[in-house]
Amino acid sequence: MSFSGDVKEELSKQLPKARHCQIAELGAIVGMCGNVEGNSDEGYKITIQTENARLARKCFTLIKKTFKIITEIEIENGSGQFKGRRFIIRISSPEDALNVLQAFKEIGEDGNYRPPEGLVPKVLVLNDCCRRAFLRGAFMAGGSMSDPEKSYHLEFICDKSGRADQLVEQMKAFGIDAKVVERKNHYIAYIKEGTQIIDLLNVMEAFVALMQMENVRILKDMRNNVNRQVNCETANLNKTVSAAVKQIEDIKFLINCGELDKMPEHLKEMAHLRLEHPESSLKELGEMCDPKVGKSGVNHRLKKLSETAENIRG
Q: With contact defined as beta carbons under 8 Å apart, do 168 and 189 qualify?
């Protein structure tokens, strides 16, 4: 099972205790993958379709628990390009469907169905507990996320911009900075930062997935820090080796042209130490001098030798 599937499996076991939270979660599911048909004269029907068996079971449970309605789950086997199974939940009784739509605050004073601009009317998500349930239902019905071992990306796929905007608005209520992008006639509300995704998992109460992702994130950060340190040390080592090679070339040049013997004793001492210890650091060379010299002093003497060689070459 994918990491996204693990998250949905965990969320499917989370059932809100308060009825208003149950309505908010079910409303998000119906908004994401449901359809309302009919009119006030003939009555309404609600159909929910999903390829996710966990979502179908949870939807069945929420309808039964919240509205005391017993529905049946139909299973359609795929055909053509679609090979999987589709689970269909129908609320066919006009009376039951009307009760559900009234609870969703989607029936106007005239008795007609009024679809919200978002997934649900704003009045259903005024409390934080309802927002949590709403986001949980929306993710189960239309959300997905990548494996955190590979990348950080979580998204909700919506067919209308107003629905994606409502998801972003509800996430911002918890300090989560989500964005919307249009892709192939759909609107995607997405998050790409690891800490923000962890915050959303916490909001939706997917605590097991949260801990798994936190562990992955910590290991990746440690790995990245080690890589940065190794790269930095390698770069410094390469720089030191390159400098030592150049210094040795300059000293050999001064010896070959007879200039080193004309130079002060402290420079001749440094030249011979560098030739005898090409791998030593500036600090180690300073410890070998008599008397001892600091790193800046060693650097100054080596620089003086190189400048002299360059001047002669010039």
A: yes
Does residue 217 form part of some domain? no
Give me 27's structure tokens.
């409303």
What is the count of structural domains for the chain?
2
CATH number at residue 39: 3.10.28.10
36 and 165 within one domain: yes
Q: Characterise 67 by phi-psi region: left (phi > 0), alpha (psi -120 to 50), beta (else).
A: alpha
Q: Give per-residue pLDDT as tens, 3-50.
A: 899 999 999 998 999 999 999 999 999 999 999 999 988 899 999 999
pLDDT digits (tens, 9 = 90+) for 208-265: 999 998 888 888 888 888 888 888 878 877 787 788 888 888 889 888 888 888 888 8
24 and 88 housed in the same domain: yes
Q: Which helix (H) or strand (E) covers residue 295, if one does?
A: helix 295-313
* Residue whose tokens read 């562990």: 215
Contact 136, 14 (CB under 8 A): yes
Question: By the 8 A CB rule, do 254 and 314 touch?
Answer: no
Q: How much is the average pLDDT of 38-66?
A: 92
The verdict on pTM exceeding 0.70 is yes
Helix axes 265-276, 295-313, angle to 10 degrees: 100
The answer to whether 88 and 44 have CB atoms below 8 angstroms apart is no
